[in-house]
Amino acid sequence: xxxxxxxxxxxxxxxxxxxxxxxxxxxxxxxxxxxxxxxxxxxxxxxxxxxxxxxxxxxxxxxxxxxxxxxxxxxxxxxxxxxxxxxxxxxxxxxxxxxxxxxxxxxxxxxxxxxxxxxxxxxxxxxxxxxxxxxxxxxxxxxxxxxxxxxxxxxxxxxxxxxxxxxxx
Length: 169
Known about the structure:
Elements: H1 2-12, E1 20-22, H2 24-34, H3 36-41, E2 45-50, E3 57-59, H4 61-78, E4 86-94, E5 97-104, H5 132-142, E6 146-150, E7 158-165
Parallel strand pairs: 2-4
Antiparallel strand pairs: 1-3, 4-5, 5-7, 6-7
């Protein structure tokens, strides 16, 4: 209960964005390095592909790191019982949008329609609050972006795509 309330309070306090133009590669590397020990100890392979000359994005770095960490943690948790443990993170751009894509080889979603619902979780009791993707979506919207998930059903992995407008500078 305490963790749920802390997450809600932290989210509610995020009303002032300090947007500045940022390079996603450094932020991605920083977030992955936070979980490097866990990834290595659980034999999870992470591949990061950043498009050469990826445009900058105007964002609040702390909130963006929260998005990336939530998406990475979801992929890590999804791989707990997977036989093949792989996360592929790709950043590219299409027109005036920058896309960050997280693919994992976990079990996938049985019901994608509920993935972004608050308090909905596929994790065991005590493991997740069901707020991660809900918060990711809210922060993405504050930045003029969106997030969506794709899964071909249970046992087939999940792809979560974060789409943000590129920086005007």
